[in-house]
Amino acid sequence: MGAVVLIEPLILNIIFSVLLIATSVYCWLCLCAADDWRRKAGEGVTDYPTVTLFKPICGEDPELLDNLRSFCHQDYPRFQILIGALDEDDPGLKATRQLQSECPELDLKIISGRSPIGYNLKVSTLAMMSPFATGDIWVLSDSDMRAKPNYLSRVTAPFRDPAVGLVTCPYRGIKAFGIASRLEALGVGADFVPSVLLTRKTRGMSFAFGSTIAIRRAVMDEIGGFSVIADVLADDYWLGRHTADLGRRVVLSNYEMDCVLGRERLKAMLARRLRWAKTVRACLPAGYAGLAITYSIAIALLSLLIHPTAIILWLAAIAMLSRIVTAGMISLFATKDFTVIRNLWLLPINDLLSLVIWVLSFFGHTISWRGQRFYLSKDGRLQPIRSSNREKTAL
Hints:
This protein is an alpha/beta fold. It contains 15 helices and 13 strands. It is globular and about 70 Å long.
């Protein structure tokens, strides 16, 4: 019995020490990766390929008109804008029609009133708009994003390299009102973006984000069009994956989009983060378990709660300090995400919340999305809740 009493604290010391060292190292590696990304040249394009900008609409996002207007005022000579909604009575189209009257000189078309081609309604909207596209570069961007006048110039610049097939952009949350939206902004700026920058540095890019997907029309045709991703939840991820599988480069631009968050209910934010976590687990099953070390403050607090020895106390303090300093430095000097800076005091809550969501994501394959219930299969495909019992059992 005496041996057991001596061994158990030693094992706990080793386990928590390894976890705390790993999470501290992860933080500093993210800082190095962010510095490498920041040093990239940010030159604009010089030959100006023809561009079609796709803006799928579903409902009225916060400040939707201003979001859309920002894409109309671009320092770019030739571009087309397609704005679409499956429902011709979609409330978001009101802002779109106002924009069309404001900018009669633009090549701007509104397309609506089609049936979906799959369970992913955003992809169905993109597919509906695609026959009207005239550009050699297709730029897909979610309706809650806001751009600066040099946006198109910057995101099309990498296409000077013929090996580049797709360009995507990180994003930062702005106009976050209320605790839920502030936590959402922290999740983006302090968790998601640093992990993406580290992945870019260590493994390269093979995925994309809905903030911006600039893709060659020829590559889109080679993939097989939007019908290939009509039933997957992570359409942005799979567009990047299919492009990389074709042997084309996927580039992470150093242009950062602004995502207008507005005010949000805590329940809706938690549901979306859980859905996103389950989606990541489906897309990246091999590496998903390793995400636990990214929640440094949560790991430090749990270590102190379970095994508060002197060495654990020092390592936990280093882990928490590393987390706060790197989140602040990346946001201040690399991504210019000042929403994160203003809300760093919420970082302990964010890490604890993220860890809980990470644990919950391992239970079940059911998700809620746009008012519907789906089963998320192991390959990331959506199946409606009304599927047969045989299909449900297989999942």
